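To whoever is on call:

I kicked off a structure prediction for a single chain this morning and the downstream step that reads the tokens threw a length-mismatch warning. I double-checked the sequence; it's 171 residues and nothing unusual in it as far as I can see. Pasting both halves so you can look.
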Amino acid sequence: MKKLLNIEDLQDLPSGIEKILFSEKKEEFFFKLLDMHDWDLSYDWFQNMYEEEIAQRKQNKQDFTPNTVGVLLSNLTGFENGKIYEPTAGNGSLVIANWNYRKNKLGLNFNSEDHPIECWEFSNRSIPLLLLNLSIRGIFGEVYHGDVLTKEIKAKYILSKNNQFSKIEKL
């Protein structure tokens, strides 16, 4: 991963990803990531690495939901059309689990625009990974970089269908 992003330390992963997300190299980078992970979009590829190396657990009290919990919650919530609201998105593992569940249940009838997301995330370091995780899956919706409790917003991102991947616009 470090070589792919041209970074020396995993602490630089969020900033390396952020640079790529808003560059002309985004699609090429996405295809390389997909190849690295055998095109398996069913889970957050960065979760283990992020938890162990990058998370700000002490400063921001960050903790991460295990993939199995995301799968369980998805089974409980169902797959009907409608907005998916995630007030503490982190890197997006719960959204990914729900997206994957809906996609598998609906098959060819799945359309990302029928299942828009609204995510909130406070951490500067999580936002780039969240945006990557959503965009590479073609997920449609809004991401708020801010405090979900006070509704103070640092940035808002719109994810819209572009082609295979979501287009990311920063407002």
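Update from on-call: the warning came from a stale cache, not from the record. Cleared it. Sanity check on the structure: The mean pLDDT is 85.
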